[in-house]
Design brief:
The structure holds 2 protein chains of 2 kinds. Chain A is globular and about 60 Å long. Chain A is an all-alpha fold. By secondary structure, chain B is mainly alpha-helical. Chain B is built from 26 helices and 6 strands. In chain B, strands 3-4-5 form a 3-stranded antiparallel β-sheet. In chain B, β4 and β5 form a beta hairpin. The longest helix of chain B is centred in the middle third of the chain and has 36 residues. Chain B starts with 8 loop residues before the first helix and ends with a helix. The chains are: A mainly alpha, B mainly alpha. The interface between A and B is large, with 99 and 93 residues. β1 of chain A pairs parallel with β6 of chain B, so a sheet runs across the interface. Chain A: It comes from Erwinia sorbitola. Chain A: It holds the Pfam family NADHdh. Chain A: It is a multi-pass membrane protein.
């Protein structure tokens, strides 16, 4: 196979643009989630732009850290956000193919998420605080629970597409293969489950659980560092969600690079994200947090879905 | 007959072997003079490693496998690309271990110096000779000498733990050798020869083949530490000096792995499908259980040893995949899987040696192996911390480091396995990929634990608080290895073709085109590690710039006081320990952790570790080593 097409024409400007756009929009979507939450609680709540105001205020404040904290703690907000931006460049956001083909591989993306998790966890261990340490531990454990679900779901979708590149999977789902409908639906459900856990929403907001852990690894952050971290965490939710939407709801993504197609795709992308966030908010505000040590029982359900996808793929071929 | 001092592989190998032996003996004789003897032993070993490296590169560039007698030594050597690869993987890591040894030996007691210098160099010589052996007698003899040297390196601390570790290793090694002798005796009975070249061209009956394969798999598996044959691995890595522990992982266990490649793909002809499946299942078991048990270890070197097992499993996934590929007549799958396995074998040596040397530095400066008592080491030993961080990240296969480059290829070969037409391959492919991902997630948790608990936070003991940087030679050795990890990851598109050539020579196939245009690719996808490296370096600048632009009148960052503890006074005991960090998984995987107690036959262990047997093993090892050395020189 000639693989040079993956490298010959990388859409660098588009890749960087979509990463920056997601970064810029992340607080807006976080604000939207806040508004949704307030409405479901029958509260008025602050406006959609409140997150921007919070972050702008935090960025002009001093960062205070405990004496034991070192470089890992200081650099984490930037590394976390940077790692997520690197993933954002490789996602199919407005184009069907990943703008950087040679980074848009599902194994690479999963391991890039692992980097993000790693910096988050060691920053939690770096402070010498009890709460951050437990938060770090929980973040790592969630990784162990989620990774098999995410990988198996995506793997089955990739097998149907015949390639592990994100663009190929999106293209295959777009031209929906009828014979593999059940397999794709099951794989999509498993990935949706994993995506929801990765977004860190209730009942899975284990690492940053406000009441028990005082926001886990975030506990000791303040000022500018906390501001950057807030952007980073809302960006993570957006990136994870877009990975799922880009692969399993690629409808409307631009196949050719015409301005009209790109514009429609961009608008559709926003609409899809809003709808998905609405659904996420519905679930989030109607459940209570799981007991941490019992989480593994719930995540088995997700793995079960992925495994069913495998079985149906084996049967349907 | 080639000349002794020419610049060709045979002469270089002879030179290396002689230098190892004589510098080892000189170190043993001059043990009283600390600096001189450690310099002779370490520098001699480095010289020998350099010679082997040059020879290996020449062999990799050379053409057909050649069998010739080493000048001045009665030893038949076979120079093939896969041997050269093994030599390269061993000598690069041994070079840095020897650099570390220079400093370590100078600070050791004279008795310890004599013993470590001599047996360490002898170990390397024997392993190198085993790597180029041209027949089964040489291979088994040299592996046996290496295992006995390893035994003397393990038991030197002379406490209960190291005696037990040595005994485990001694018994495993003897059983392993016995299995190998039986396997090759069987092949000798069927073919009339023990030369690899003859065996390669003999056709065996399926029964003979399978029996020999199983025996050899057990024998090599004992050396490689395949679970459940791994009993000797964890404790022996903890008892031997750190640079020797590094050699166990990067050289001794690799001989076992390459042995499996030889027997499974090279000597016995095309493997039947079930051999490959057996290797794949054992590989997955080894990788998963190794990763799971590593998580519960506090002794940093035992933890690394369990990760060596995990990596042995990952390498064997590639080798098993290649065997399945050959059996199913899928040359692309076979080439890609073997390429991934061999590349990971090389990479594992780099990062694991860096890790063991780093752990040795910490141990030397603090006297502590238990990471619960460390903490805050990054402040006092920053270079060691950076080297260990990079090596740990390589171990967890994080991009853009070398572990990721080889594991990506492995995932791609598993993808091709999944896409195969045979049902069992279609079933196993996705499950193995999930197992690998789960192992990766466990490794990630484990490296977060190691780095977070050992290097970050506040010191947990007086010794950790008062540590000083290690001697420069030690720090340099681990930093350079970490640098090699980065290079072999970021530059992987330019390195992979060499490994592809080795894989092709084992399989007798045209070279697989698996890299180019700055990216590694398979028929199904591509990944460009250099591009990911650029993204990961460049992207964090964006939030940083935003923070700087919106700086306003902000005061500079401040670090002081204790961590917040809900208004209570902060005390060191509150901080999460390594045990606490891994606790949730101990609960979630409780049945698998209980397995260890259930599967260990307590009466047998008690019988094996009676004191009389230990002394007996020791005497037996000494006699056996003496006899074997006489045999080897004769």
């Amino acid at each position: 196979m000639n693989t040079s097409f993956l490298l010959a024409d990388p859409l660098w400007p588009l890749a960087l643009l979509q990463a920056m756009a997601l970064l810029a929009l992340a607080p807006l979507f976080a604000g939207f989630s806040r508004v949704m939450r307030a409405r479901m609680h029958n509260r008025q709540g602050p406006g959609v732009l409140q997150e921007y105001r919070d972050i702008a205020k935090l960025l002009t404040r001093q960062s205070v850290a405990p004496a034991a904290a070192g470089v890992a703690f200081r650099s984490m907000p930037y590394l976390l956000t940077g790692g997520l931006l690197a993933i954002a460049t490789a996602l199919p956001v407005v184009t069907l193919a990943s703008p950087i083909g040679a980074a848009g591989d599902l194994i690479a993306v999963i391991y890039l998420f692992a980097i993000v998790r790693f910096v988050f966890a060691i920053a939690g261990l770096d402070t010498g605080s009890t709460f951050t340490g437990i938060g770090a531990s929980r973040e790592a454990v969630l990784g162990v629970l989620v990774e098999p679900i995410l990988l198996l779901g995506l793997w089955i979708a990739a097998l149907i597409a015949g390639s592990t590149s994100l663009g190929a999977i999106a293209a295959r789902v777009l031209h929906w293969p009828l014979s593999s409908s059940l397999t794709l639906v099951l794989a999509g459900l498993a990935c949706a489950f994993a995506t929801y856990i990765e977004m860190g929403k209730l009942p899975f907001d284990m690492a940053e659980a406000e009441q028990e852990l005082q926001e886990g690894p975030l506990t000791e952050y303040s000022g500018a560092a906390l501001g950057v971290l807030k952007i980073g965490i809302s960006l993570k939710q957006l990136v994870v969600l877009q990975l799922f939407l880009g692969l399993f709801f690629p409808f409307g993504l631009a196949e050719q690079l015409t301005p009209l197609a790109l514009l429609t795709a961009a608008l559709l992308c926003l609409v899809k994200l809003l709808i998905a966030l609405f659904l996420v908010a519905l679930i989030e505000n109607s459940v209570a947090r799981l007991r941490f040590l019992k989480t593994s029982r719930t995540t088995w359900a997700g793995f079960g879905l992925a495994f069913l996808a495998l079985v149906s793929w084996l049967v349907a071929g | 007959m080639t000349a002794l001092f020419a610049f060709d592989p045979a002469s270089l190998m002879t030179l290396a072997l002689l230098v190892w032996i004589f510098s080892g003996i000189a170190c043993g004789l001059l043990a009283g003079a600390a600096r001189l003897s450690s310099l002779i032993s370490g520098a001699g070993s480095m010289l020998a490693c350099a010679a082997v490296m040059i020879a290996a590169v020449q062999m990799l560039n050379g053409s057909a496998p050649a069998i010739l007698t080493l000048p001045a030594l009665p030893y038949h050597a076979s120079f093939s690309p896969v041997n050269a690869l093994l030599l390269l993987a061993m000598s690069v890591t041994a070079f840095f271990s020897s650099l570390y040894a220079c400093a370590w030996l100078a600070n050791a007691r004279p008795h310890q110096r004599a013993r470590t210098g001599l047996s360490g160099n002898l170990l390397l010589a024997a392993l190198t000779a085993a790597a180029i052996s041209a027949n089964a007698v040489e291979l088994i003899l040299m592996m046996e000498i290496a295992a006995l040297c390893a035994y003397f390196l393990i038991v030197q601390a002379d406490d209960v733990k190291s005696r037990r570790a040595g005994q485990n290793q001694f018994l495993s090694g003897r059983i392993g050798t016995l299995c190998l002798i039986l396997a090759f005796a069987l092949l000798h009975h069927a073919s009339g020869s023990l030369d690899f070249e003859v065996l390669r061209h003999t056709t065996f009956t399926p029964g003979t083949k399978s029996l020999a394969f199983l025996l050899a798999l057990a024998g090599f598996g004992l050396y490689a530490g395949i679970i459940p044959l791994h009993a000797w691995v964890p404790q022996s890595h903890s008892s031997a000096p750190a640079h020797i522990a590094a050699l166990f992982s990067s050289a001794l266990m690799k001989i076992g792995i390459i042995g499996i490649v030889k027997i499974g793909l090279d000597l016995l002809g095309a493997p039947p499908l079930w051999w490959g499946l057996l290797v794949l299942l054992l590989a997955m078991l080894t990788a998963f259980i190794g990763g799971l048990y590593a998580l519960m270890e506090h002794d940093i070197r035992r933890l690394l040893a369990y990760h060596s097992l995990e990596n042995v499993g990952i390498i064997l996934l590639g080798i098993g995949g290649a065997m399945v590929g050959v059996a199913l007549h899928q040359p692309l799958l076979a080439s890609l899987a073997l390429l991934a396995g061999l590349f990971h074998l090389f990479n594992h040596g780099l990062f694991k040696t860096a890790l063991f040397l780093g752990a040795g530095e910490i141990e030397m400066q603090t006297g502590i192996k238990d990471m619960e008592k460390l903490g805050g080491i990054a402040r006092v030993m920053p270079w060691t911390a950076v080297a260990m961080l990079i090596a740990l990240m390589s171990m967890a296969a994080l991009p853009p480091l070398n572990g990721f480059a080889s594991e990506w290829l492995l995932y791609q070969s598993l993808f091709q396995l999944s896409a195969s037409q045979v049902f069992i391959a279609r079933l196993l492919g996705p499950l193995l990929a999930v197992g690998l991902a789960l192992t990766g997630a466990l490794a990630l948790m484990c490296i977060a634990k190691v780095f977070g608990v050992t290097f970050s936070g506040a010191p947990r003991s007086q010794a950790a608080a008062e540590a000083t940087p290690a001697p420069r030679a030690m720090t340099i050795s681990s930093v350079l290895l970490a640098l090699l990890c980065v290079i072999s990851g970021v530059a992987s598109p330019w390195i992979i073709p060499y490994f592809a050539a080795v894989a092709a020579s084992v399989l007798n196939q045209p070279v697989l085109q698996a890299a180019g245009h700055g990216a590694a690719f398979s028929t199904t996808s591509a990944v460009s590690v250099p591009m990911i490296a650029i993204l990961l370096l460049g992207m964090p600048l964006l939030p940083w710039i935003i923070a700087m632009v919106l700086r306003g009148s902000r005061l500079p960052d401040r670090s002081r006081g204790d961590a917040w503890a809900c208004g209570y006074g902060h005390s060191a005991e509150m901080v999460v320990t390594a045990t606490g960090f891994a606790q949730p998984l101990r609960v979630m995987f409780a049945p698998l952790y209980r397995l260890r107690q259930q599967m260990t036959p307590a009466p047998l262990v008690a019988a094996l570790h009676r004191s009389g047997l230990g002394t007996f093993c020791r005497r037996l090892a000494l006699i056996e080593l003496a006899v074997l050395l006489v045999v080897a020189f004769a």
